[in-house]
Write a structure and sequence with these properties.
heterodimer, A: 611 residues, 27% helix, B: mainly alpha, MetI-like fold, 13 helices, globular
């Protein structure tokens, strides 16, 4: 995941407003020097995100939520669920079309957005990175989408104006809007949806569908008529609607897929039906899209043109907004974010939760981490609070999130989590227990050889701050010596695959906030991203039940069981689910910045410029 | 002269070929798989071994090394500098987009280094031991010690914090928008020029000091020439040769781009592109950029050698 960066919280106990300019300058120079050294390393992906105080979606009051929507599939963790009910909606009537929440939005203008580096290719289904998703999203639509007006807390109609879900979750029927045109002029029909999802589910030879697992339970996709699509499931999936609504699930043209034999890696302007049309992509410069005059929702988009400028460095993205050269930037550097907080008359700033976690994965096939007691000891002994302070040089990281993204309705309560062993700030009991576990595992005096702490990237906070702090805690609390082994990205994955490490820092990502997705990838036996090579039949059983359960309360109970098991087995040290800092000029309106994930609300169709 | 030029050009050919072989082999010997970077972790680890092999074949990496090398050289001979492993965009396009900015910064930096370094060196040498000499030496040492990127970071941060200004983030060329182009390039050029100017000042000073006691200078003075004329006509013109040599080396280095300064100012130059391509194992970009640098370095050095003859009539090329 490119462009993961550190962030800080506007809600932190140490007020950013207390930072003097002199101190900011001094720290900024130092950090910038570090970032320059980082320029000699591989691209930024290893730069970890430092989450802030959890976003408080429950407090958010969107000005004008789109009228009729499906029930929330991405309800905030803090919100109290209603009585036991299906996690997926049984039916959804057609909704009002999306529009800006403010009255009388202005039309026209060009919004300049600070982008990241350039994508390696253009095929969204083959890409794991926001470097593809964020710039390409405005050109496409989904069947259903997360509502941008309420920050993604509800799922609303998109290309499907309504849908029905069988009460037992055995089928999902979507009714498409008529007269929707792709940018090449072809009309959208059910065959396009079928071709899109068939490739996603069963990619042709030579094509990798990264989020294939989300659609594993789809038995068949049918088209009763040209404007109806029916997904027949082999078994229910409690998260299926969320999978269709994530920003990754864009609808492509059958013709495009056929013409390119299902591989769009080298096709930079394949047509979508979205609010913006492709204009130009200049590598290492900018990506330009302009308003689609034939867009099916005549209310949006409001701006004429989006220019996403390629800006590799986080500090440059931040300074570009501060000096008014761009209007909007995500994942800016901590120092520029803090400077933005001091300029409330010019810019706005907040941190947004992302859908990846900060972790240290253990190689469970190699001693001493083949022993669950040792992994549990690390889970207990490492102070998440101290690590966060050292790592981010300030404030809190996403304390108290356990193994589930905070915005999932299945997430456990953060305040309760912070009382649990391993997560609580007071380590006295945890350390005593950790030492007992080490003794029971036969490692009272440490391990016979230094452990290999594999790091992706040669420089950056992950290698320079996080790893040494983790290393020091392991040594002090558990007597485990380790050596940090930094390698370039091009070498890293081979070493992970062959298990040439004891532990490795990482920021694995999910496609949606629901744990069925990322637990299946990270922890299921032989899961595609199970780098820990961990296998636990009981966990697999819990996950299988959770996958097909539709009742929210029952899913929550299974999720808790899974989290408890993960706390005990700890295939990875789960630090938390972070946020990244976002800043934007005050004239940027029409978008709810209090969003609940990084793969939603990316289309910029409701955005407008008040200037 | 023509024979000398021809001979130098012929000698350059094996040098450049040697460099191409070296960089080609280094890229293949370095651990790391380009396919893993292009696809990213989730995709790469989900890929079957057969798919990985197919993608390597697509990139031409399944061929024997000598075939890969010869195909590269044949393409270069046809004027084709190849394509990036990533989006399939061409290296020629990369050079066209980034080259002008890098060249402009290099030329401006070397000009600044002369404008700063030569007068200071001259002043320092002719007033040796004076307060001006001490001040000049302190500053030249200071700018030698301060990394250029630090100056760059300081300029950008001060600009942002106190003046809400930073160099333009979008690229403009001298011929499309001169004002914005200069805003973008003057900072990096000054940061690089200050460091280079310190070198030039020191070499100018030592060179002049050496010549001030030369026989022909003493003779000039004994003939009754005024000191100013002695310095300009007899000392300075001879002292400038080492400066030209040094400037040639600095210029050749700058034409390759400065990663640190480009990063500090957020300028998309060739230096950053090369380093990123190296980390990404983007073989064709690295190989062809290094080839271009080799040609630039050889050419600049040749120009410097030719400049000697123009500056010093005693030097004749046989």
């Amino acid at each position: 995941m490119d462009a993961r960066i550190r962030s800080t919280s506007p809600m932190s106990s140490r007020s950013p407003l207390g930072v003097s300019r002199r101190r900011f300058l001094a720290v900024g120079l130092g950090l910038s020097a570090l970032s320059l050294l980082a320029a000699c390393a591989p691209a930024a992906p290893s730069s970890p995100a430092k989450p802030a105080e959890p976003a408080k979606p429950a407090e958010s009051k969107p000005a004008a939520p789109a009228a009729t929507t499906a029930p929330a599939a991405a309800k905030p963790a803090e919100s109290k669920p209603a009585e036991s009910k299906p996690a997926a909606p049984a039916a959804a009537p057609s909704a009002e079309l999306v529009k800006a929440p403010e009255p009388n939005p202005k039309r026209g203008g060009t919004i300049k957005i600070a982008g990241f580096g350039d994508p390696a290719h253009f095929d969204l289904d083959q890409s794991p990175t926001i470097v593809n998703l964020w710039p390409q999203s405005p050109m496409y639509d989904n069947l259903v989408r997360f509502n941008p007006i309420d920050g993604g807390r509800t799922i609303i109609p998109d290309l499907a104006e309504k849908w029905e879900i069988a009460p037992d979750g055995s089928s999902y029927t979507f009714h498409l809007r008529k007269g929707v045109k792709f940018h090449d002029g072809a009309e959208l029909t059910a065959q396009d949806v079928i071709a899109t999802y068939q490739r996603r589910q069963n990619p042709p030879e030579g094509v990798v569908s990264i989020r294939q697992e989300l659609y594993r339970a789809v038995k068949s996709i049918e088209a009763p008529d040209p404007y109806t699509v029916k997904f027949v499931m082999s078994e229910p999936r409690g998260y299926f609607l969320e999978a269709l609504a994530t920003g990754w699930s864009v609808i492509l043209s059958k013709k495009t897929l056929d013409d390119n034999k299902g591989d769009l890696r080298r096709v930079q302007n394949y047509p979508g039906t979205g609010p913006y049309k492709y204009v130009a992509f200049n590598p290492r410069d900018k990506w330009i899209v302009e308003k689609n005059p034939d867009y099916w929702n005549k209310e949006v988009p409001y701006v004429d043109r989006i220019e996403r400028i390629s800006i590799q460095e986080a500090k440059d993205r931040g300074t570009a907004v501060l000096t008014g050269q761009v209007d909007f930037a995500d994942a800016v550097s901590v120092d520029t974010y803090r400077e933005a907080l001091q300029r409330p008359n010019e810019v706005e700033a907040r941190t947004i939760p992302v859908t990846w976690a900060i972790t240290v994965t253990f190689n469970t096939q190699r001693p001493p981490f083949d022993d669950a007691r040792v992994r549990r000891a690390v889970h207990l002994a490492i102070s998440r609070q101290d690590l966060a302070k050292v790592y981010e040089l300030s404030d809190d990281i996403t304390m108290g999130t356990r193994w589930i993204h905070r915005a999932s309705p299945l997430a456990s309560n953060i305040e309760e989590n912070l009382k649990l062993p391993g997560y609580r700030a007071d380590k006295s009991e945890d350390l005593a227990e950790a030492k007992k576990l080490m003794a029971a595992a036969g490692f009272e005096n440490g391990f016979k050889e230094p452990l290999i702490f594999l790091q992706r990237g040669l420089t950056g906070p992950g290698i320079e701050i996080y790893a040494p702090a983790f290393q020091d805690m392991l040594k002090r609390h558990l007597g485990l010596e380790s050596v940090i082994k930094p390698v370039e990205t091009s070498v890293y994955w081979d070493q992970v695959r062959v298990g040439e490490y004891h532990m490795t820092w990482g920021a694995p990502a999910g496609a949606i906030n629901d744990p069925s997705d990322y637990w299946g990838q990270w922890f299921k036996t032989n899961g595609p991203q199970n780098y820990a090579k961990w296998s636990n039949p009981k966990f697999d059983e819990i996950l299988a039940k959770m996958d097909k359960e539709l009742d929210l309360e029952k899913r929550k109970a299974l999720a808790k069981e899974g989290e408890d098991l993960l706390d005990q087995e700890a295939p990875m040290f789960m630090h938390g689910w972070p946020t990244v800092p976002r800043i934007w000029r005050k004239h940027v309106k029409g978008i709810n910045q209090d969003i609940v994930g990084s793969y939603i609300c990316l289309r910029y169709d409701t955005i407008w410029l008040d200037k | 002269m023509n024979f000398y030029l021809l001979r130098r050009l012929l000698v350059s050919v094996p040098t450049i070929i040697g460099i191409t072989i070296l960089i080609f082999l280094v890229m293949r010997v370095l651990p790391g798989d380009p396919v893993s970077v292009v696809f990213g972790q989730e995709s790469f680890t989900a890929m079957s071994a057969a798919d990985q092999a197919r993608f390597r074949a697509d990139l031409g990496l399944d061929q024997p090394l000598h075939v890969q090398y010869l195909e590269w050289m044949a393409a270069v001979a046809r004027g084709d500098l190849g394509r990036s492993f990533w989006r399939n965009d061409t290296v020629a396009d990369l050079l066209i987009r980034r080259g002008p900015i890098t060249i402009q910064i290099a030329v401006m930096a070397i000009t600044f280094s002369w404008l700063i370094g030569i007068p200071i060196g001259l002043l320092s040498a002719t007033r040796r031991g004076s307060w001006q000499d001490h001040v000049a030496r302190v500053f030249s040492t200071l700018f030698l010690a301060i990394p250029s990127f630090w100056l760059g970071v300081a300029v950008v941060l001060v600009g942002v914090i106190y003046f809400s200004w930073r160099p333009p983030i979008e690229v403009d060329y001298l011929w499309t928008n001169p004002a914005r182009n200069l805003q973008m390039t003057i900072g990096p050029a000054l940061a690089l020029g200050a460091g280079a100017g310190a070198y030039v000042a020191r070499i100018t000073r030592s060179s002049i000091l050496e010549l001030l006691h030369a026989d022909f200078v003493r003779t000039a003075r004994s003939k009754g020439l005024v000191e100013k004329r002695v310095i300009w006509r007899h000392v300075f013109i001879n002292a400038v040769l080492p400066v030209v040599t040094l400037s040639g080396l600095i210029l050749a280095g700058l034409l390759g781009g400065s990663v640190a300064v480009e990063t500090a100012f957020g300028v998309p130059g060739l230096g950053t592109a090369l380093v990123r391509a190296l980390a990404d194992r983007d073989y064709m970009v690295v190989q062809n950029l290094v080839l271009v640098y080799a040609v630039i370095f050889t050419t600049v050095n040749l120009c410097v050698d030719l400049a000697y003859g123009w500056l010093d009539p005693r030097i004749r090329y046989e």
